[in-house]
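Interim report to the steering committee. The following record documents the input for Flavin reductase (291 residues).
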Amino acid sequence: MITLDPKKLSSVEKQAYLQGAVGPRPIAFASTIDKNGNANLSPFSFFNLFSSNPPILVFSPARRVRNNTVKHTLINAEETREVVINVVNYDIVQQASLSSTEYADGVDEFVKAGFTKLKSEVVKPYRVAESPVQFECKINDIIALGTEGGAGNLIICEVVRIHISENILDENGKIDQHKIDLVSRMGGNWYSRANLGMFEVEKPLSTLGIGVDNIPEYIRKKTIFAGNDFGMLGNVEQLPGEGEIRKFITDNPEVAKDIEQKNIEQLDKTAKQLLAENKVLDAWKVLLAQQ
C-alpha cells in the first residue's frame, strides 16, 4: 500500500486519486441562467442528497484545476440564486457529456447538446425535457471551500418543485430503479450504469465539439438514431473531409456497394453500429457519403 501526503501532491494528482477512489458519484445536471436571461447547462459529479425535510440537494462547481477559473454555473448561481437540477440517465449521458464542453460565454448548451427546454413553474432556469426527474431549486447558500484550483463551492439548494416522468414509475406510482436507469461518474472517462456496470465516455476537456445543432438536418431526422448517438456525433471537433470519406469507401467494399445501390437503410445501420463501437469518425464518413 502506498501512503500519500495531499500537501505534497499536485492539484491534478489529488483530483485523479480522489475521483478514482470516491465513486460512483451521482450527476447533477445543473441548468442556470445569467443576469441577462441566457441559459447555461452543465453536469457536476460532486453532488448528492443531504436532507429530505427540508429537501436539500448540494452540488459543487469546483474551480478549474488547470487555470483556477470559475464556471458559468457558479457565476449564475451567485447572481440569480436559482437552479434546476436534472438527473442523468443512460439515454442522455452522451449529450450530457457534450454539454460539459467549455463553450464560450453566451453559447447555449441546450442547443449545442440537442436538449429541449421546458419552462419551470417557480424558478427562471429551464428544465431539461429529456431528463426523467427535474428539481426546481432555490439556492439557500453558497460556501467557498478555497481559492486555489480544484477548490469546491458548495451550492446548497432547496427543492421547491419536483417533476417526474410517468415512464419511470412502477405500478404503485413509485420510481422504478430499473426504469430510471441512472448513471454516475467514476474516475477518468469512466461512468457506471446503475443496473449494468461500467462504460466509457470520452470527456470533451480540450476540444470544442461541433454540437448537435451543427449535425445536418437530414441526419437529425433519421429515427434510427437516439440522443446518445447525436451526442457522440456532436462531440467531434471537425468533420472528415472528402478525401477521408473516399478512402473509407474504397477500403470498405460493403459500404461502397450500399452507396452505389442507394441502400440508405443499411448505411444507417452501419453508422449506428460504428457508433456502438465508438468509431465516431467512421460513422460520420458513412453518413456524409449519403449526400
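The two ends are 57 Å apart (CA to CA). The committee is asked to note this result when reviewing the revised timeline.
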